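Example record for the data management plan.
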Amino acid sequence: MIEIENLPGNRVLVFAPHNDDEILGTAGAIQRYGEFGGQAHVAIMTNGDAQIRRPRRLPFFSPNFVNLGYRRQSESRKALGYLGLPPERVHLLGYPDRGLDELWTDYWGYDNLYRSPYTKADHSPYKDNYNPKAAYCGLSVLNDTKEVIREVNPDVIFLPHPNDRHQDHWATNGFATLALLELQNEGYGWFRGVKLMSYLVHGVHFPYPRGEFLLASLTRPKTLEGLDTEWFLFPLSFTERVRKLRAIGKYRSQTQLMRKYLVSFARANELFGVVPELDLSTVPELENPFRLSMDVVLEEERETSFLSYLDPKSKSRLATLKRYPDLRSVSLGRNNGNLEVLIQFYNVCGRNNEIKIIIKSVNRTGEAKDASRSNTFVSKTDNLYVNGVQVDKSSPYRYKRDRKSYSLSVPIEELRCPQKIILSITLGRNGVTFARSANRVIKLDR
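Corresponding structural encoding:
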């Protein structure tokens, strides 16, 4: 890890999935920018309105999730105001808590809206949204995210790390990354210089130890040590740590449930990572479509190579006991104009398990945009579904499913010949996801 005394940029935008993530991940950074004349903005994707846990002393009444959302909005304003951010720099997008991943993968267009099982709404029920009556679909999130970036015009964006284990954090990373890539290709050339800094909230044994330890340091999670992320340690003064701890205390709805966990983020430093793009643009057509170039493979010497966007964990004991498949490796390549994906599993991947490959296409500058730039490929039993429609044998897609592997060949032309893609993989069954790769940017064309 590299220790840095000064953060890059002067105009900053923080993307937070829920009300409190902005403080947990970046409260020290927000203070430092303010101290040296910078300007920080915060965009909160959801209002955290799916919180179903409550203190044991409270009766089991039926919660009003919208009221909870308003309360959590107020807590964010108080905490950020305490750190010096005026209300006009806090942007509340109001999308469904615990549903952002569904909008990223399955509910993309305005003709297919997601309905929150908590608020029972398919449009935002909040009066003070950034976009009033925002529709619960991926395109709406993407458009609002792009509009916030255009309005703030940042030179640095803080966003969740792509290997964050929470589904909303994982999706927030995808939306913010895709929004910036699209803006870069829509005539906003100055956004090419924007630096992306990621922070981690949900990780295995992170932060450790749990509790109030203002003199302890945040360290890189061991489960992420094998990734290609470049980590930066940003030291905080003791005053900045205390102010971060007090800001965390403003989230009363959360500290009464998980204070020991939340205060664990008030440490001697904050931890930020820079995640590079993967590059397939210089890889020639391959005789073996699953042979990987060095700029994609983390450890070529291993018998089974791991791509850098996987969480490089050992075989999961829980997955073994429950007979869930778990991602072992993913290989990428190009062959005869096709994007080739090969997935291998630790355990047997039964025919009733869903293998979901999500690809977001980023077109070249000046090319027409259309909603089909998002493609979700789902394999279940012996069938393949593309954006919810089952394909037949005459389709241009080729796939093969074995007990411990799955391969998919997608014509790049069907993806609208993108310059870049964002790719991720999830495994699930009956609506339950039990394995997920990170969203990673892959360059396909120069």
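Summary line stored alongside the record: The chain is about 20% helix and 25% strand.
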